[in-house]
UniProtKB/TrEMBL annotation:
Superkingdom of this protein's organism: Eukaryota
Name of this protein: Zwei Ig domain protein zig-8-like isoform X2
Species lineage: Eukaryota, Metazoa, Ecdysozoa, Arthropoda, Hexapoda
Gene3D superfamilies in the cross-refs: Immunoglobulins
InterPro entries with a match to the protein in the record: Ig-like_dom, Ig-like_dom_sf, Ig-like_fold, Ig_sub, Ig_sub2, Ig_V-set, Zig-8
Signal peptide: 1-27
Gene coding for it: LOC112679627
Amino acid sequence: MTFIYFREMVPNLFLVALLINVPDLWASDRRHSRHASVGGGMTNQLDPNNTASRKFLQEFLQDIPPPIIGPVFDKTVPNNVTGLVGRTAYLHCRVKNLGNRTVSWIRHRDIHLLTAGRYTYTSDQRFEAIHEPHSENWSLRIKYPQKKDSGIYECQISTTPPVGHPVYLTVLEPTTEILGGPELFIDQGSTINLTCLIQFAPEPPPTVGWTHEKQPINFDSPRGGISLVTEKGSTTSSRLLIQKASSSDTGYYSCDPSNANSATVRVHILNGEHPAAMHHGQGSIPLCPPIVSAMIVPFLLIFTARDL
């Protein structure tokens, strides 16, 4: 006897009742369809209580998915979100079998209700609930996020008691760095190569300026040999090249992107000096000041005489 199983159309309880009676139906079918044997007229019957029947039921019932009771969160949706200052961030939550419940977003930092359903319950208009009708997705949109918005947000379902799913938001501020800083030592006559990196900006900086001793660098100055190469992207790099470095090139250089903080580096031009000597402002480092030497020598003589 053949049974056709429609998982989506047959309720689970009815299906279980049907499977419990499978051995009896099978035995009855075989009892009417098989002929008696020549030896004694006995019929082959399937005993519903034997080991084979029980094994059949156990294996078949294991394939039946358990019924879904109440709404559940889809844990495959990422719950770690990294955003950038000034760029709109989205926190996603997917709920299956929601029924007539409501999905809310709550900020853990101050236990503040931000949204309920498709309505916003905060005076901060940067927060907004996003939901397409008949979909399982409930998202929280944060416009112009700031670093202070970092933290835990909870997607909550209005069951009794409520159940929640945490989403972690990290908002990164733009950073500006000059490689090799904060001090660089360059040999006189060589090329000064300053590379500035701008990261985590909401968009590539429209302009990246350079200054020397707080004065804008003039690329058309009579000195010549000054060039700038800027490559924009998720990480923007700006390279300042100054050929044939001289003592006049010593000082502070700043990289100033238009949408991020500036970074500064101090450049020393070496004219045969050792870098350590530059920190003392002279070509060599005295081992000991003369006054201190005059005070130490008598004590050394006294201890030497005692030893003798």
